[in-house]
Amino acid sequence: MISLLLRWWRNLLRPKTQLTTTQDEPDLEHSEDTAEAGQWVAYDEDLLERARTQWQFGDWESLIDLHRDTLQHHPDRAKLALLAAAGHQQLGSIEQARQFTRLAKNWGASKKLIAQVLVAGVHNTLGRAAAISGYQSRALSHFEDAIATANAQGDTRLLIQARTRHELERLQITIEPQTLSLAGQRFMTPLRFNLVNTATTPSQTTTSKPE
Question: What are the C-alpha distances in Å from 168 to residues 50, 131, 153?
Fold first, then answer.
C-alpha cells in the first residue's frame, strides 16, 4: 500500500497538461513575483517556526492558509511551500498539493526534503486508515513514522502523542490514555544508552582455545 501511495505522490509532481488557467485556480508555479529587483520586502520572521509547529501537531487547516504571495519573498519559502503542500494533501486538496510541491521544488527544496515530507504524509494517511479500521496499534506505528520521518526538532515522543491525539479526535475515535502513552516509546532510548550496552568487555572478546 505504501508503494502505491508513493507512486500516486510521484504523479502529483509530474507536469499536468492544462490549456487555460481559471481565475479560481491561479497558476502558482508560473505567476511572477511582484517586487521589483533590489526592493526590500518585509516578511514574518516567525512564520517558518509556526508552520513547523502546525505540521508537527497536524494543524492542516492553518497550513493551507499559507499563500504564494505571502511566501514568495520569504527566505524559507521552499520549506514553507512544502509544508503548505502537506496541509493540502492531508485535507484532500490534491491539485493545490501538487502546485505547492512543485513550487517548493522550483524554489530550491531538495529532493531528500521533499521525499521526507511526502513519505511522512503517506504514513499519516495510513495511520488514519488503520484507526478507522480499528487497528490502533498499527495506527500508532504509522503516526510514529509520520513524525519521525521528517521531524528533526523537539521531543519526538511527545510530538507523536500530540499528533496521534489530534488525528484521532478529528476522526472522533477514542483512545485510552494508557494506550496513547505507549506511542513513541521506541524513541525514548538515547543513542548513548545503546552505545554503553553494545560496548564489549575484554572477557567478552576473549575466545576459548579448542582443546
Answer: 22, 7, 23
Cell 510521484 sits at which residue?
10
Q: Where are the domains of the chain?
A: 44-109, 110-193
Q: Are the CB atoms for 103 and 122 separated by under 8 Å? A: no
Q: Are 165 and 180 in contact (CB under 8 A)?
A: yes
What is the largest distance, in Å, between two alpha-carbon atoms of the chain?
Answer: 87
Residue 146 grid coordinates? 509520520
What pTM does this model have?
0.70
CA angle at 19 for the pair 14 and 25, rounded to the nearest 5°: 75
Structural contact between residues 49 and 80, judged by C-beta atoms closer than 8 angstroms: no
Q: Per residue in 59-89, pLDDT tens?
A: 999 999 999 998 999 999 999 999 999 999 9
- Has domain 44-109 been given CATH number 2.20.110? no
Closest C-alpha to 152, from 192, 117, 199:
117
**Grid coordinates belonging to 26:** 491561479
If one compares 183 and 28, the residue with the highest pLDDT of the two is 183
